């Protein structure tokens, strides 16, 4: 469970033939509603935990334990979190990044499934790994500014994020000259940067 990253739909497909065989053995019809099987006993369900929830709880538990122990796996988690932060261009904790807005910009991985489930259940994870820092006074991270713009579609945001990764820029300081008034351009005359500040 700690290693799998199957979606809820995939788990339903996987469990369907298993329940079709196991339900009659337990005295139920093979067509017994799965929602009742997975429902809580307080509301008339049978209290069977859906494997997708078990999987995601295992992810949370594994992440917490391995990062607390500072094990080799915890170091790999740290590398994954830092890589994801750099890929998305967001400075804060993983769960502070808006999942629905930024999911298209992230490479699918074990860490993105943890991020998705934490976002779905409003779980805050304050990881101990380094965050992206600003380079100077009045500097700003680029992607949070763009993500907050309601006029940009998800596809627009994905394209802009790819541009940032290609140019290896995270904040405005990476795009401007030392004085902060001009956009840095190679082999051309610097242009005023005031239009970039939104």
Helix segment tally: 8
Mean pLDDT: 87
DSSP helix fraction: 40-55%
Main beta-sheet strand count, sense and barrel state? 2 strands, antiparallel
| DSSP strand content | under 5%
What oligomeric assembly is this protein in? single chain
Q: Tell me how many strands there are.
A: 2
Order of helices and strands: HHHHHHHHEE
Instruction: Pick out the low-confidence regions.
Output: 193-198
Shape: elongated
* Distance N to C terminus: 45 Å
Reading side by side through the largest sheet, how are the strands ordered?
A: 1-2
Task: Decide which structural class fits the backbone.
Answer: mainly alpha
Q: Radius of gyration from the CA trace?
A: 23 Å
How many distinct folded domains?
Answer: 3
Can you walk through the features of this model?
This protein has 198 residues and is an all-alpha fold. It folds into three domains: 8-49, no CATH class; 52-120, no CATH class; 142-192, no CATH class. Helix content is 47%, strand content 2%. It has eight helices and two strands. It has a two-stranded antiparallel ribbon with strand order 1-2. Strand 1 (182-183) and strand 2 (191-192) form a beta hairpin. The chain is elongated. The protein starts with 7 loop residues before the first helix and ends in a 6-residue tail after the last strand. The model is unreliable at 193-198 (pLDDT under 50).
């Amino acid at each position: 469970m700690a290693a799998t990253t199957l979606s809820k739909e995939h788990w339903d497909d996987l469990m369907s033939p298993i329940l079709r065989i196991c339900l009659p053995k337990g005295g139920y019809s093979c067509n017994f509603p799965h929602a009742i099987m997975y429902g809580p006993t307080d509301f008339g369900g049978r209290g069977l935990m859906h494997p997708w929830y078990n999987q995601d709880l295992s992810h949370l538990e594994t992440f917490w334990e391995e990062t607390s122990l500072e094990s080799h796996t915890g170091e790999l988690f740290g590398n994954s979190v830092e890589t994801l932060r750099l890929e998305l261009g967001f400075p804060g904790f993983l769960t502070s990044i808006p999942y629905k807005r930024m999911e298209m910009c992230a490479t699918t991985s074990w860490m993105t499934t943890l991020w998705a489930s934490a976002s779905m259940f409003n779980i805050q994870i304050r990881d101990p790994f380094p965050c992206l820092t600003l380079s100077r006074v009045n500097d700003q991270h680029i992607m949070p500014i763009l993500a907050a713009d309601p006029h940009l579609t998800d596809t627009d945001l994905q394209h802009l994020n790819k541009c940032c990764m290609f140019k290896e820029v995270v904040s405005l300081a990476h795009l401007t000259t030392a004085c902060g008034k001009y956009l840095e351009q190679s082999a051309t005359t610097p242009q005023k940067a005031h239009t970039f500040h939104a």
